[in-house]
Structure formats: C-alpha cells, structure tokens
User: Fold this.
Amino acid sequence: MSLKSATLLVLIAIAVLTVWEVVHFISTLLGVIRDLIPPIALLSALIYLFAAVCALVFFFVFYRSQPTR
Assistant:
C-alpha cells in the first residue's frame, strides 16, 4: 500500500466522521433551540465539528501533495 492510497483511505474515513459530526451538531443545535439540551452541550459539539473539519482539510491537502505514480 502506497502512502497516497493510505492517505485516500484515511481521507474517506475522516469525511464520514465529519458528516457524522455535522449531523450531531445539527441535532444538538435543534435540542438547544427546543430547550431539551443545555446550551453548554453546543460548545462541545462545535469543538468536535471544528476538529473533524480541520482533520479533513489536513488530509485533503496531504493527499493532494502526494505525487502520483
């Protein structure tokens, strides 16, 4: 397995994780709006979403920087 194919595999996994975090953030946001979840939970959901997006961007840039063979 080359570094480029391993990076693609990780990029796909991080993309799935990012989608999951977006859904979780929206669910938490709706819960806060409906007054079912305390507002502080929105902060942790936002932090997880930010970390997932940063990892996605990092692996995308890393994947694009690898030479094709």
Q: What stands out?
A: The chain has a mean pLDDT of 95. The chain is about 85% helix and 0% strand. The longest helix spans residues 3-33. Residues 13 and 45 are 19 Å apart (CA to CA).
